[in-house]
Structures are given as C-alpha cells and as structure tokens.
Amino acid sequence: MQNPNLPDDSYQRLRRSLEKKASEDISEKIVAVILFACALVSILTTTGIVVIIFQETWGFFQEVSLAQFFLDTKWTPLFADRHFGVWPLINGTFLTTAIAMAVAIPLGLSSAIYLSEYAQPKVAAILRPAVELLAGIPTVVYGYFALLFITPLLRNVIPLELFNALSAGLMMGVMITPTVGSISLDAIKAVPRSLREGAYALGITKLEAIFKVVLPAALSGIIASIILGISRAVGETMTVVIAAGQQPRLTINFAESVETMTAYMAQISGGDSPRGSLNFKTLYAVGALLFLITLALNIVSYWVANRFKEKYD
Amino acid sequence: MTITYKPDDYLDSTPEFTDNIEQRETLGKVFEILFLLGLLIGIFILALLLFDIFQDGLARFLSPGFLTENPSRFPDQGGIRPAIISSILLGIVVIVVTVPIGVGAALYLEEYAPRNWWTAIIEINISNLAGVPSIVYGLLGLGVFNYLLGFGPALISGALTLSLLSLPVIIVTSREAIRAVPNSLRYASYGLGITKWRTIRSHVIPYAVPGILTGVIISISRAIGDAASLIVVGAVGFLTFNPGLFQRFMALPIQIYSYITRPEPGFANAAAATIIALLVLILTLNGVAIYIRQRFTIN
C-alpha cells in the first residue's frame, strides 16, 4: 500500500534514503526485528487456527466418514442412535441468516442512501453514529431482547414456538444493519458528483438518479457489504443460541426452533464432553466447516470490492 | 435488405410524450420517506431495546448488594461481583497484551515493511482474521491456552483468547492513526540526524496516540461484550469467589447468558440488571474514547 501523503517517486526515494541512514545503528535493527515479530503474531494466529481445528477435524473423520457427515440428514451426535449429518445445522444457519439479510439489506441500504443523498451533513453526523451504535451492543443483549421482547410480541400475531428462527433472524438483521450500511455508504459516497449532475442534466429526478446511476455505480461495494453481512450472520452465536434454540431440523419453517452451527458449538462447549471423545471432536468438525464458510465469504467480499471497483479519475 | 415503414403508422403507434414529472417527483418523495424510515427503524429498535431492558432490570440493578455480592440460586437475591471483577480483569489483560503487539505490528507495517509479497500476505491475513467468527477464536484458545500451554479453563486462557480476537481491529485502527501523521514531521526529525526508532518514538507515536487509543478502547469494549469465545474456552455461569488469573472465571456476558437460560421468571430481571451493568461499563469506555479523541488531538 502506498503512503497517500507522498506525491511522487522522488519523495519516496528521499524518505527511503533518509530512513536508511537513520536506521544504521544496531539497536535500531533490534527494534525493527521486534516490531516484525509483532506483525508475525497475526500469521501465527491464523496458523494456530488452521492447525488446531484441522488436526481435531482429521481425528473426527477417522471415526465418522465424509459420507455420514455430508449425506445423512439427521444430526443426533448426543443420542443413543447417533447420526452425524451436518445438513440440519447448515439449514438452521442459513435460515436464520436469510431472515437476517431480509432485514439488514433494506435497512442498511436505505440508511446508506438517506445519509448520502438526502440528509444534511449536520443531521448525517448525528444519525450515522446513532445507527452504528447498533453494532456496539453486545450480541447477548440482542439474544435477551429477541427471546423476551420480540418473541412474545410476535406470538400475539403468528403462532411461533418459544424458540424460533424468526425472532433470532430479525434481531440478527438489526445487528448487522450497520455492517451493510456503513460499507455501502462509503461506496455510494465514492460515486462522483459529476455522474449525478450528468443524470440531472438529462431531466432525471433524484430518485431515478439514485436507482439508475448511483446504485449501479456503487454496486461492487454494495455487494461486498452484503456478503460481509452474510458472513457476520453465519458466524454470530449468542443471538441464535438464546433465541433460535437447539433443535437441529431440516426445515424452512421460520416459526420452528432450529439449531445453527454456532449454537451447536456453544451447546457442546457448555456440556462436559471430555477431550478426545467423539462428541468433543464434533465441535471441531463443525467449527472447521464454519471457518471455511466464513473465510470463503470474506475472500469473495474482498475480491468483489476490489475486482469490480469502478475507477473514477 | 431495406427496411420500409409507413411514417403514419409509426406516428400512430407512438404514445404522446409526457414527462410525467409530477408523478415521478411524488414517487421520489415517497421513497425519500421510505429511506428515512429504514434509517430510523434501526435507531427506534435500539431505543426500544434500551427502554425494555431498563424497565425489566433497573429495580434489580438498584437493589442493595447487586454489584457487590456473590450470585445466588434465588433470582431476587445475590449479585454479580465475580462477573464484574472477571470482566475488568479480562479487559486489563487484553489491554496489556494487545496494545504493545497491535501498535508494534502497525508500526512495522506502516514504517518498516518493504512492499513485497510477504507484507501483502500479512496484510491480507489481518483483514481475514478480522472476519473470523468469535466462536472460532474460542476453538483456538481452547487448543492453545487450555491444552497446549496447560492453563485449563482459567481466566488467563479467556483473556488471551479475547486478545487474539481484538488484535486485528487494533492493528487496523493503529495503522490508520500512524498513516495520518504528516511526513514533514518525520523529515524534520531525520534532518536533525535523529535515528528512525527515536523519530517514531518522539514524533510519530505521540501524534498518533489519540487515534490509537480510540481504536484500542473500541476493540476492548467489543472484547468485554463477547461471550461466544469464552463459552468455548470454559467460562462458568456461577462463581462464588473473586477469580484470579489462573482460576475459573466468569464474565458479564456469560452471567447474562446463564441468567437467561434459567427457567424461573425472576432471572430475566436479573439478566436485564446485568445487561445494564455491562452497558454502563461499555458506554463509559466509549465515553473515555470520545473524550481522549477530543482532548488530545493535535491540530
């Protein structure tokens, strides 16, 4: 990454030569090594995650075949009749995620559009942090609110189980709104004024300019924000473990209780499965799958943001 | 082939052009209101959430001994002292571990790192780590701190797990703060023959401190609110002593989770009261961050 303060090559060369002279001392070199070691911690963290998770997962697949894991449709590792089909957990995860995104995409995008295109700068300066406060609330608090406020409220209108995918998904959507909103806002703000003004000159209204010019131009950033939001929803634990329950089911009925991958992991961690037991290894097998899914989503989001970025000069 | 058409037919088939401008502007107004509603719904739900929690929990929060006593098996008795002390200890360890490493990594990447593939790997890696779910960090902590280093389900394991979780955010925000330091400051220092590290120490760091501190505090308040990773590492929902670094531990979010999952109705109020304590802690931290940014920003 280039330092944006440097206008051109000659400054780069000046800085390098000054720094070279300034870091000739031996103690200076020691400092550089220490700082490098700090940066290395992030690489070690990743290596640690990969090694530990996949080591235990390897152990899991010595005892349970890939076919049992990916082809069976029942997940009952704690019962006498054991099944290790992971689909009910994936189903629960994506059901709650889908509900969350049905909330987060419209709320996030309309927040971004309003703040960028309509709000006075002074109003936006107050409203933007207010929306972002949503992301700073601990997720266990959203779980409390979903279970004890949203669910009773919804049960007046539609028949729901006490633990259900709908309340958890709705709450997760509110929580993820700032993620979608603030990245989309940056993308929308990056669309140059000249494009909007060109559109107005053709006799287009503000709304038409937003839908036909601004949003298409910001599309890569918006898609990246949505994918990142999905990744957050897939990895979110406390809201779903509290409000969606622990019933691994293959269902798209949002009124029922489901279990997500993360909720299962929390459940098994809270129990007392001894290390080395098959139950303990399921924690890592599910964790590995969760890690791979979120990693893939994060990479795709990063790639979309960079690959399709419009260049305006 | 030539296309022929009768001009009259063409004119007849074309509807008269009207720009419909009033209708389109009305539609625009409708959408403006919809967008505003979309923005306000989130804020409205936040307000509703806070109102609901204060309504459920304020009386319990203000009941005598709630902040200073051990938890009890009865919902209307006892308090959350071990959870508060755990959370504060966790926060302190996270600060002690992540600030030097995070700022060090940021300094390396901004001031020292050559522009090559190795640096690119570190950068991509950090941005990926920021997207790893908290509960996966729990698996890392369980493997490394509980078993490999042998700490077991102790406070230090939880604290180090939260530290790794916070590190990417601190590195990213510190880098931004360091990048915002004007180069003229560095050149002035080099020009006087001062070495690189002393330039960083005496010029770059002081200038970047407000930005760094803001990022540090925001990520600490995230860490204090995190429960998923601590559940995996082995935090407990019930403790009747003040934890030390190498003992079993709680945390405010874990206490909340433990209260919510109990069936007796009074525990919901205890959970809400604990949420108030957690929000007060987090809002205080954020308040400090805002104060620091305003008070110490060098213009």
Query: Could you give the distance between the termini of chain B?
Result: 73 Å
Rg of chain A (C-alpha, Å): 24 Å
Distance N to C terminus of chain A: 19 Å
**Biggest sheet overview of chain A:** none
The average pLDDT of chain A is 91
Strand content of chain B: under 5%
- Biggest interface: A-B, 98 and 101 residues
Quick check: average pLDDT of chain B?
90
Q: Name the shape of chain A in a single word.
A: flat
- Summarize the helix and strand pattern of chain B as letters: HHHHHHHHHHH
What is the β-strand count of chain A? 0
| Low-pLDDT ranges of chain B | none
What pattern of helices and strands is seen along the backbone of chain A? Answer: HHHHHHHHHHHHH
**Number of strand segments of chain B:** 0
- Kindly name the structural category of chain B: mainly alpha
Helical region count of chain A?
13
- Count of DSSP H/I helices of chain B: 11
Q: What's the overall geometry of chain B?
A: extended
